[in-house]
Amino acid sequence: MIKVGVFYPDNPGSKFDMKYYLEKHIPMVQQKVGSALKHVTVEQGVSGGTPGSPLTYRVICHLSFDSVEAFQGAFGANAPQIMGDIPNYTDIQPIVQISEVKL
User: Fold this and answer.
1) pLDDT digits over 24-70, tens only?
2) Helix (H, G, I), strand (E, B) or coil at 14
3) Which pTM value belongs to this model?
4) Which of 70, 75, 81 has its CA nearest to residue 96?
5) How far from chain centre, in Å, is Cα 40?
6) What CATH fold (topology level) applies to the domain 2-100?
7) H-helix or E-strand spanning residue 28
8) Of 59, 67, 66, 64, which is closest to residue 30 (Cα–Cα)?
């Protein structure tokens, strides 16, 4: 199992439309990648690691797939539509990491 982590840094003055992200973007991603997507979570940051410290990431999304190949096969052909939707909800450049789930 792999997780594709999409991290949106908390840049001062940046915008992020959570309503659009949850109601339009994520359902579109789910529809485009289909059954290859096993699970998705969306987290909204509330604080840094210590009380009152700034956020590192405003939003984190994790998408689970059986393998890197499954992710690439499902995402590849749909990348232009998925990536093209980003300006509709944020001006933040996301950071993406693919990780192998160990536990």
Assistant:
1) 999 999 999 999 999 999 999 999 999 889 999 999 999 999 999 99
2) coil
3) 0.94
4) 75
5) 9
6) Alpha-Beta Plaits (3.30.70)
7) helix 26-33
8) 64
